[in-house]
Amino acid sequence: MDDSVRINLERRLPKQAMALVLAGGRGSRLKQLTDVRCKPAVYFGGHFRIIDFVLSNCMNSGLRKMAVLTQYKSHSLLRHLQRGWNFLKSEMGEFVDLIPAQQRVDENAWYRGTADAVYQSLDIIKAVRPEYIVILAGDHIYKMDYARMLADHALSGAGVTVGCIEVDRKEAKAFGVMAIDDSKRVTSFVEKPADPPAMPGKPDRSLASMGIYIFTADYLYKMLEEDIQMPGSEHDFGKDIIPKAVSQGQVVAHFFEDSCVYNSEKVPAYWRDVGTIDAYWEANIDLTATVPELNLYDRTWPIWTYLEQLPPAKFVHNKVDRRGEAIESSVSAGCIISGSVHNSLLFSNCRIHSYTEIKGAVLLPGVVVGRNARLSKVVVDRGCVIPEGMVVGEDPEEDAKRFYVSEGGVTLITPSMLARLNG
């Protein structure tokens, strides 16, 4: 195919598409970190929220018609979107619509599955008159050009295209797993199988769905109308809609590597499901590397967000035993550091008092660490005040009595946990 034809498709198709971001998940695997917020609203990377990545992918791909479907604990998310994503021009056909669960089908039931969430918003979607509908999960970290996937979808003639990525077979139990033929036509699709099928010639790898679907609009409407009438359906894309579309020969696969926005040729395609405390801690700490796999400094593919106006970070005192320092760390605006910070990521407005030692820590906004405290391999939730002299991360058994300790040895500290310690 002529390159000019494809380039024209990549420029034109995003304007004919609408993105639906599914942001209603409970995020229970993040434990107490999602007690007061849904997973897409969880902080990430110094001053972002997780949902900022998928919305920024839409923006940078030229996909400016977006709707965010929410359900559980959505206040923090809605407030963030209202503050940080209100700059689009509606007169230019650009918008981020916020669509809470509306009980349109049954006044006694909220969304019963991902497909039901879209079905209950069909009147809103149809009013926009998109030719293509891009369905996205709002809780993953990656950079991707959806325009390339849209072009592949249009050229394939299929009803739906599924974004996919190779994963370790042991990890594939948490994903939809598919098999494809030589033309990338999906021949089978199983949601979260107990024994994931391996890829041909790769016994330790499986081809997993990323939760990214592009539908031709009319085909999606038809599938949803049929599904809502189907007895026993869970009204879920991975469990019901996609397997049925596979049986009709209407599904093709799109490899993430073909549309990933890379840091450089030397790093692999970056995609993370930060759905556990261990994965969340690791992905944040990875950003402190000299050359991290995820480049947040790339001005050609910026990550948009809401930023409070704050003064720069400050490091105070310069004595042998009392020196504010941060080594191999990322420190956000508004922070004042008087202690020692190593291999850590600090969000905005943190206060690190004198004689503290912080190693491998992810501190969310507004955390205060008292004098002589020592923190290692921790995630500290927003607004926590760590008492003077508290030690966390050196005695797992003692930590588990007070806080949540993950399988990987990461300690999560929240304000409610600290409040219980104080009686």
TrEMBL record:
Domain (Nucleotidyl transferase) ranges: 19-288
Pfam families associated with the record: Hexapep_GlmU, NTP_transferase
PROSITE patterns the record matches: ADP_GLC_PYROPHOSPH_2, ADP_GLC_PYROPHOSPH_3
Catalytic activity, EC: 2.7.7.27
Superkingdom of the source species: Bacteria
GO MF annotations in UniProt: ATP binding; glucose-1-phosphate adenylyltransferase activity
Binding site for alpha-D-glucose 1-phosphate: Y111, G176, E191, K192, S209
UniProt keyword terms in alphabetical order: ATP-binding, Carbohydrate metabolism, Glycogen biosynthesis, Glycogen metabolism, Nucleotide-binding, Nucleotidyltransferase, Transferase
Pathway annotation: Glycan biosynthesis; glycogen biosynthesis
Function: Involved in the biosynthesis of ADP-glucose, a building block required for the elongation reactions to produce glycogen. Catalyzes the reaction between ATP and alpha-D-glucose 1-phosphate (G1P) to produce pyrophosphate and ADP-Glc.
Database matches in NCBIfam families: glgC, PRK00725.1, PRK00844.1
Family of the protein in this entry: Belongs to the bacterial/plant glucose-1-phosphate adenylyltransferase family.
Protein's UniProt name: Glucose-1-phosphate adenylyltransferase
Organism: Lautropia dentalis
Originating gene: glgC
